[in-house]
Structures are given as structure tokens and as C-alpha cells.
Design the sequence.
């Protein structure tokens, strides 16, 4: 079984760990450099990217994590995790760190500050078995994606989507996967299976 870490500084760590186990991996909470060195892949959960960025520094994980990502560590970021993995975040704080593992510019809280959460069924490239029910919570979207980034899902053109229609909300670049939504919250482990597969291939 691949050992997949869940960055456990803040956010919905337990939900990701449970989904990883369901998807056939062994989940390991990661708070220290030693733990980071033991994993074959890493999930960066949802939560608050500014807080997580600060905690990465406090726990002295920022440089080790950057180094492992540069070596090709497979990673999956959901929501705040996607923001951290991006090369640039709009509407972020000036002192927020970017891990620069995805050649994308994301916009934080992109669906509007009033819109706390939003749900939509998405067609996700590479997922069999029909649309995926996606839950967005103060979510970002991808505003610009480089040529090496594969778009896996966009918001469909529905009435509920409004101005968010067509926005990019799931991507993959090499062994790095990211979703603006929270696949750990809906009991559908297909995205986690996709990530476990990426880890196994790598
Ligand atoms: N709005 C949060 C941020 O900017 C992300 C929200 C989430 O992860 N659910 O970091």
C-alpha cells in the first residue's frame, strides 16, 4: 500500500485520511519533516491558506516541502491546498507563501464573499461512473493555467453557477492534482482513487 501523508497543520485532515484509506492507501498525518520524508504522496487539505502558510513556517516544513515537491513528490490539494500549491494567489495576503508546484494563478474566495458554499455536479476528466457532486466552500478558482496544466473540470453552465460558469475547478500537472472543491466531504472516493493511482504510477 502506498503511504500518503495528509498535511495536518489545520483543516479537514481526518476526512482526507478516511478517504485515502477507503481508496486503498495508508494515511499518515504529517506535522514534522521526518514524517514528510516517509510519505509517497501528500494531501494538502482545505482550511485557510493564510493560516496554513504561516504554520508551514512555524513547523519548519516550508523548505522541506518545497524541496520534495521539486523532486516530484505527488501532491493533491483541495481548496486551500490548491491555493498553496499554485504559483500565485490573487486576493491573497502579501506575506502568504506559495509552493509553486502548479503553474496556475488562482483567485481566493472567487465565488464571492457572500457565497459561503455552492454545490454543483461536475464532469471530471478521468473519472468513470458519471458526474461528481462537488461542494465548494469559500472556494478559489483557477484564473490562469500554463500550457503544462491539464484542465480536468470546469463549472457547468447552469443557473446556479451564474457568473462562475466555465471556471476551472480541477487540474493536474504531472503528479500534482488540485480541486477547488472538497471531494473528502461527499463520501465519493473517486478523486482520492485517482490520486492513489498517480502515487502508484510515480
Ligand atoms: N477561503 C479559504 C482560503 O482562502 C479556502 C477555503 C477552504 O479551503 N474551504 O484559504
Sequence:
Amino acid at each position: 500500500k502506498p503511504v500518503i501523508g495528509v498535511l495536518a497543520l489545520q483543516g479537514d485532515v481526518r476526512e482526507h485520511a478516511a478517504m485515502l484509506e477507503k481508496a486503498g492507501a495508508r494515511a499518515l498525518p504529517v506535522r514534522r519533516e521526518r514524517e514528510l520524508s516517509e510519505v509517497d504522496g501528500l494531501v494538502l487539505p482545505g482550511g485557510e491558506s493564510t493560516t496554513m502558510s504561516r504554520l508551514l513556517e512555524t513547523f519548519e516544513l516550508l523548505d522541506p516541502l518545497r524541496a520534495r515537491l521539486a523532486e516530484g513528490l505527488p501532491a493533491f490539494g483541495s481548496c486551500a491546498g490548491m491555493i498553496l500549491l499554485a504559483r500565485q494567489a490573487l486576493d491573497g495576503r502579501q506575506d502568504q507563501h506559495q509552493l509553486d508546484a502548479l503553474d496556475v494563478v488562482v483567485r481566493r474566495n472567487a465565488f464571492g464573499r457572500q457565497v459561503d458554499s455552492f454545490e454543483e455536479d461536475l464532469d471530471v476528466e478521468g473519472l468513470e461512473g458519471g458526474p461528481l457532486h462537488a461542494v465548494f466552500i469559500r472556494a478559489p478558482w483557477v484564473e490562469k493555467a500554463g500550457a503544462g496544466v491539464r484542465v480536468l473540470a470546469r463549472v457547468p453552465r447552469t443557473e446556479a453557477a451564474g457568473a462562475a460558469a466555465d471556471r476551472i475547478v480541477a487540474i493536474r500537472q504531472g503528479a500534482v492534482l488540485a480541486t477547488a472543491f472538497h471531494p473528502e466531504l461527499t463520501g465519493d472516493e473517486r478523486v482520492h482513487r485517482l490520486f492513489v493511482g498517480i502515487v502508484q504510477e510515480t
The chain has a mean pLDDT of 94. Residues 46-49, 79-80, 83, 108-109, 137-138 surround glutamine (CB under 6 Å). The chain has one domain: 3-201. DSSP finds six helices and twelve strands in the chain.
